[in-house]
Design brief:
The protein has 99 residues and is an all-alpha fold. The chain has a domain of 68 residues. 67% of the residues lie in helices and 0% in strands. It is elongated, with a radius of gyration of 23 Å.
Amino acid sequence: MPNILEDLYYGNLSPCQRTVRPDSRVKKLMQKQSDLESKLNGSFTEEQRANFEQYLSASADLLDANTLDNFITGLRLGARFAHEIFVGTDAPFADLAEE
């Protein structure tokens, strides 16, 4: 069984580098977005295109910040679950091991 701590240490864990399945809903949405972006870029003036590129960059930065926050929040929630499972003793009945 792989050691997750070693994978983390050696940089073998990278959730950001996942690929999208070709037949997935996400892939179709990405293609739709790309098609619409191409259409818009074709109809813009140079100034509008520059503004749109800045908008896309700002949107990507915001999405990146939100994704990072969701990752951290999910990891912390998972750690809290694990802590409660392994350390928590709040239960209305005694554990079988205590009897």
